[in-house]
Amino acid sequence: MSLTTPQPTLQQLGDELSRATERDVRRARSRPIRRVALAVVILAVIGTGTAAAAGLFSPKQIEAAMPAGAVLFDQTDPTCAHQGSNGAFRCTLATAPTVDGPGYLGTKETLVVAGKIAGGCIGRDEAGLTWDCYVGQDAVDQEIITKDFLGEPAGPSRG
Known about the structure:
Elements: H1 10-47, H2 50-53, H3 59-69, E1 78-83, E2 85-93, E3 108-113, E4 116-123, E5 130-135, H4 137-141
Antiparallel strand pairs: 1-2, 2-5, 3-4, 4-5
């Protein structure tokens, strides 16, 4: 070591320590921000019903979504199975709907999952025992609901 090498002053050491700490804090902040941003994107996807179109709902969830979306399905004990694409289900009711009407062929009702419109169902017979249900974009394609209605807050409707 040379005696002529200038030694850093206390001020210079403090400045360097401050810069190093600031860099570390910035790096630490960027990771959680990325995680939060990813979480927000995931929630937005789920909220708009895209998750439904991706096949993230099971037949059991659709069975629960029917009475959550329409009073017509109360106490009908639906049983559903995947039909073709991930967003399509064929549902059969154990008992016919008790809501008075001229018949259920072509009747359209909403599906509600976690308080949001996730899709809808179309009646396939006059007695109202067979329904084709669609989630996400499939429900929009079947003209049961509109794109802007998908993911909106909702409760059971009166049919």
